[in-house]
Amino acid sequence: MQAWVESDPLLGPVVVSTEQLSARIGDLGREITKDYEGRPPLLVGVLKGAFVFLADLAREIDLPIELDFMAVASYGSATKTSGVVRIVKDLDIDLTGRHVIVIEDIVDSGLTLAYLRKSLLARGPESFAVCSLLLKSGQQRMNFEVDYVGFEIEPLFVVGYGMDVAERYRNLPDLRVYLGGEPE
Question: How many folded domains does the chain comprise?
Fold first, then answer.
């Protein structure tokens, strides 16, 4: 563990430990491997928050996968979504006829995911699924199912394991409560 972590007053308790992350991501990889046998998926990582999760999950899927990335913005540097979603980096791969699994770090209100879902389904994939590391309980304003969920958590703002606040804390090996207010 990095020495600065325990002395940072903005970091609260661990919500999901490194060991819990590793075990659950292994389970998700096996589940996706089973579900996609004979039809290798294209994993679409939503940057930047999902990059660590995507890397670990990809290694747990025992199939020849393809990867692409998109970046969307709905938070900026704030701790609450603005509700306005915009694509910052689009995909390089054509989705037509592919088995697409969107890899998200967290589903909060679901507005970003609803926007992505609509946009990506219009591109003609053979199948479409969503895998999110975290699902905030009771926060979704959209009515759709997340196919693969790592952990359901209370509606807390968490950082670590790729997730940030104002680009900080992505390198934490676990997920922790962020105790600070709006970043400077």
Answer: 1
